[in-house]
Design a protein that fits this description.
Helix content is 69%, strand content 0%. It contains 10 helices and no strands. Helix 5 packs antiparallel against helix 8. It is mainly α.
Length: 190
C-alpha cells in the first residue's frame, strides 16, 4: 500500500476549499486540485462533475460553515449582545476565510439545495430580531440592512478600502452600535 490518502469527494472539496481560501476562486482549477492531492486530473472525475460543480460544492460547504459559526456566536445571547457577537463573527469569518466568504455570499438562484443552505446564516439573525418586536416585513428589511452593512464593511476592508487614519476596529464598532441603535429606535420604522 502507498502512503497516499484515499481520494474522496470530501478530500477534493477540502483541497479546493484550501485553494480558494488562500488565493481566491480564480486560482481554482481541476489541475491545481489534482496537483495538491497528488493525483492526475482525470482521477477527480470519479468525485466531481467538473469545475463548476466543484465550486458549487465548495460554496455549499462554506455557507454551511459560515452559518454554523454565526449560530454559535449567537448561542445563549439575545438583543444587542447577540447582534454584536454575530457581527463580530461575520467579520472574523470574512477575514479568516476570504475566499470561502466570497463564495458564501454569492447567489445561486437555480440551485434549491444551495438556496436552502444560504438561508442558514440568516436564521440566527432572524432569531435575534424576534426580540425586537418587528413584523415580518420589518424583519426582512432589518436582515437585509444588517447583511448589506456588514458585507459592505468586510468587502471594503478586504480590498484595503479604509485608508483614512482612523482605527478600523473602532469604525466597525461604530457601525454595529449604529445598527443596534437603529433597531432599538421606533423612529426608524414605519
Amino acid at each position: 500500500m502507498t502512503g497516499r490518502k484515499r481520494l474522496t469527494a470530501q478530500s477534493v472539496v477540502d483541497a479546493a476549499s484550501a485553494i480558494v481560501d488562500a488565493e481566491g476562486t480564480s486560482a481554482l482549477t481541476l489541475s491545481r486540485v489534482a496537483r495538491e492531492l497528488g493525483v492526475k486530473p482525470p482521477s477527480l472525475y470519479n468525485h466531481v462533475i467538473g469545475l463548476d460543480s466543484l465550486l458549487r460544492d465548495v460554496a455549499l460547504m462554506a455557507t454551511e460553515d459560515f452559518a454554523d459559526r454565526l449560530g454559535a456566536a449567537a448561542m445563549g445571547r439575545t438583543g444587542p449582545a447577540a447582534l454584536r457577537a454575530v457581527a463580530a463573527e461575520f467579520r472574523a469569518y470574512a477575514k479568516a476565510h476570504p475566499g470561502l466568504y466570497e463564495l458564501s455570499a454569492q447567489a445561486r438562484p437555480h440551485d434549491e439545495e444551495y438556496a436552502r443552505a444560504s438561508m442558514r446564516p440568516v436564521e440566527p439573525v432572524i432569531a435575534i430580531l424576534r426580540g425586537y418586536d418587528l413584523d415580518e416585513k420589518e424583519s426582512i428589511h432589518a436582515v437585509r440592512t444588517l447583511r448589506a452593512a456588514l458585507h459592505g464593511f468586510v468587502s471594503l476592508e478586504s480590498i484595503g478600502g479604509f485608508g483614512l487614519d482612523v482605527d478600523v476596529d473602532e469604525s466597525f464598532a461604530w457601525l454595529v452600535a449604529s445598527l443596534v441603535e437603529a433597531l432599538e429606535s421606533d423612529t426608524t420604522r414605519g
